């Protein structure tokens, strides 16, 4: 059911974010056949930073937290997530990535003193039960490490969001842009340390691979996050976040249409369980309104 309090242009943006980010996994999976995954993310952020750096304010007083957010929430996160994606289908990876939400709730409780509702705790338990179903309770053949890498990426993304909350005086565009700028050298160093064949990959890459890099840098990162941040400025997280449940649906369909991927019934069932758990968390409107009330009380 579409929330009635969001105007149609914002509903269109929310659907667009799910489409853009969902297809991003498909595009990145296709590009990983040519580029090592960390190198591809480094090139992605070259595109994003070259586009946004001209509009960025001086982040006075935020350099330390920006660097920490970049190391954890960008460099480590993208390296883990997309290295894991190289060993999985785009649809399966997108399903596992949904554990970002329960990880974020858990870290909010542990590090920020937040008090999740019983509904959120139930959603966390259901989501991780879905991960257990996807992994076959340890009976995977050959790609358990890839799933663990994607889970590590989801965890570090959530940890990065906790660090981002320490920033002050920066809007969403500034945070996105500065993290992209700082991530570029870090990801190139990580690629040099953990990957090989970068020079040959760049020399032999065809136009479709460079189009994939442009999509990741301009569409998925710059446009996707611009729309996402604009929605968060105007609406409660609990109203916007449920649209992201469409993201893995787009990835599964895109993987099937463009990459010929298939998901067996057990993994589809596990993905549905993850989405059910994440849905419980993101539609808990009572807790989504609590921070706004606290802010008003303090002014």
Describe this structure in words.
- The chain has 14 helices and no strands.
- With 299 residues, it is an all-alpha fold.
- The longest helix has 28 residues, at 207-234.
- It has one domain (8-283).
- The two termini are 35 Å apart.
Brief rundown of the structure:
Helices cover 76% and strands 0% of the residues. It has 14 helices and no strands.
Shape: globular
**What is the C-alpha radius of gyration, as a whole number of Å?**
19 Å
Strand content: under 5%
- Structural class computed from helices and strand pairing: mainly alpha
Helical content class: over 70%
Average pLDDT: 86
| Main sheet overview | none
Helix and strand string, N-terminal first? HHHHHHHHHHHHHH
Count of helical stretches: 14
Q: How many domains in all?
A: 1
Give me the secondary-structure topology.
Blueprint: H1 8-31, H2 37-52, H3 63-85, H4 90-97, H5 100-111, H6 118-134, H7 144-164, H8 172-194, H9 198-204, H10 207-234, H11 237-240, H12 247-259, H13 265-282, H14 285-297
Helix pairs in contact: 1-4, 1-10, 1-12, 2-8, 2-10, 3-7, 3-8, 4-12, 5-6, 5-7, 6-13, 8-10
